[in-house]
Amino acid sequence: MTRKQSHLCKGFHKEVWLFIDASLSPAQQRKWQLHLKQCSSCRDWLQQSQKTLAKYRQAPAADIDEMRFERMIEAATRYPQKRIFGQRLWIRVAAAALILAAMGLGGHEIALPGLKALLSSSGEPVSEKRMVDALWMKADPLDYGGTAIDSVLMTMNESLLQLEEELFLFADTELYF
Amino acid sequence: MEETDWIVKCRNGDADAFARLVQPYRRPLFAFLLRLCGDRALAEDALQETLIKIWTRIGTFKLGNRFSSWVMQIAYRTAVDQKRRRKDGRLFYSDVLPEWQSPDDPTRRLELDERRRYMHRALEELPENQRQVFLLRLDGELTFKEIAALLGQPLNTVLSRMNQAVKKLQKRMEHYRDD
Fold first, then answer.
1. Which residue among A107, B41, B90, B129 is least enclosed by CB atoms within 10 Å?
2. Within its chain, how far is the Cα of A100 from the centroid?
3. Domain spans of chain A?
4. Mutate: best of B21, B44, B56, B62, partner A, most A CBs <10 A
5. What pLDDT score does A134 carry?
C-alpha cells in the first residue's frame, strides 16, 4: 500500500459513517466511491461494518401492547398544548414588560399603596427590593387587600409565571431543532 | 395524508390526528427507550412522558425538519431526565433482556433468541459513550450531525465513537461465531 493510499484509507475510515449516510458533499461521496473501487481493504472493512449493523437491525426489537400504547396517547392528549410562536406569547411578553417598566419607573408608588402601607406597618424602611421581594415571594393578593392591588398582582403573577414557563420551554425546545 | 398534515392538525388540538401521527413510532420508540432505560416499567413511564411532551410541544416543532429525529431526541432527553431523577441509574444499560414476540417456528425462534441474547451481551460490553452513539444512530435513527448536536460533542468524536463501537461489536461477533 502506498503512502498516499494509506492516507486515503485513514480519511475514509474517518468519514465512513457520513459516507454511508450519504451526508457528504457529492464530490466527497464520489471521491470515496472511487477509492472503494480501488481499495479492497476499505471495501472489506465497509462490508464488515455494514454486516454488523445489519445483524443488529435483524435482532428482534421489543414492543409494547397496542392497547396500552393507545391508552398512553389518550392520556397525553389530556394535557394542554403549549403555544410558543403564536400571538399569545407576545401579548404576555408585552404585558409583563409593561408591568416591570411601571415598577422600575416608580409605578408601584401609585399602583401599590396597599402593599407599601402593609410593609411600612412593620416599622422597617420600605426599599424597592423589599417591595419586589414582597411581590414575588409573598404574592398572595388577598394578603394585601384592595381591589386595585389584587388586580395588579394577579395580572403580574399570571403574566410572569406564563412567561417564565414559556421562555423556559422555548430555551429547552430550541435544542431539539 | 402526509405526516406534516397530521402535525398541523395536532397543533389545532386534534387528538385523533395525534394518534395517527405517533402510531408508526410505537415500536421504534419503545425499543429505543427500553434500551436506554433498561427496564420495562421505566421504559413505559418514559414513553408516556415522551408522548406528553410531543403532544404539548408540537407547536414548537419546525415544519420541514425531520419529525422522527425530533421525537427521538425528546425520547432521549426524557430518558436522561429519568436517569437524573433516579440518580442511581446508568443510562444505556439493561439488566433485563427486552421481551419480544417469538415466532412460531421453534428453529427460527431459537436462532433469533440466540442472536438477540448475543447482541444484547455485546452491547453491554461497550463503553457507555460508544453505546450511546451506537444506539442513537441505530435505534434513534438520528444522523451523526444530530447526535453531535444532541450530545454537545464534536462530530469527529461522535464518528470515532461509532467506529470504535462497530469494531468492538464486529470482534465480539467473530468470537461468538467461533464458540
1. B41
2. 25
3. 3-58, 87-174
4. B56
5. 55
